[in-house]
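One record is set out below.
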Amino acid sequence: MPFYICTACGTQYPESARPPEQCVICEEERQYVPPRGQTWTTLSELSQSHMNSFHEYDTGLIGISAGFAIGQRALLVRTEGGNILWDCVSTLDAATVSMIKGLGGLKAIAISHPHFYTTMNEWAVAFRCPIHLNTADQDWIMRKGEAVKLWEGDTLKLWDGVTLVRCGGHFPGGTVMHWAGGAGGRGIVCAGDILTVATDRKWLSFMRSYPNFIPLSVREVEHIGKALAPFKFDIIYGHYFDRVIAKDAKRVLEKSVARYVAAINGTRGY
């Protein structure tokens, strides 16, 4: 029996003879059901219609996406301690497997939030590695798997220089990844859309729901800033290929939090 995949958000569901009646992820206020209604596909069908493309941002940092469903971009992060897949995409084809195995495979998968869980279990099986998810979001895991390892608290050190940081916000377990050795030692943050790189690529913003325009509270956004305060970083990689804060990213985060808070409080001058 197939493992059906939602075409709107890319989430893979447990094995079943028929597609689910609805996608739990899309029915919730942070996502949406398209006007055409709920439709489904499978990994084998996707392999006939979509293929991953790749973009090397820097030494040890490769973006991966086929533009399916939400359209996010995953990152292959090649650190000194091992390779990590940051965030996940539904499309996993033979070329992607061959490329990653040729670069040393994966030591771990880490994902920012449930919208990007997608076909994570397929990736974990292909590369025989664990998936690290924050326990606060465990109810949104639609397809359970032995590779899923839940972690608690505010940070998880995967190995030297690589730390998962729970920021919350978009989801209670919303996570970013800090790599101290990235950008030639200046540090990077892989943010998904927990920190959303704005279209002008000069600012960040923060939302509970992006498609439905539900903002976060001042308290939640200030917490995001505090969670990342102890970390040094110069670049932030968002969730699309072109969404990158290319320099002075920590300062951009600080001023973006301040701008957001002032806008919500009505204290921003114009």
User: Anything to note?
Assistant: The chain has one domain: 3-265. The two ends are 58 Å apart (CA to CA).
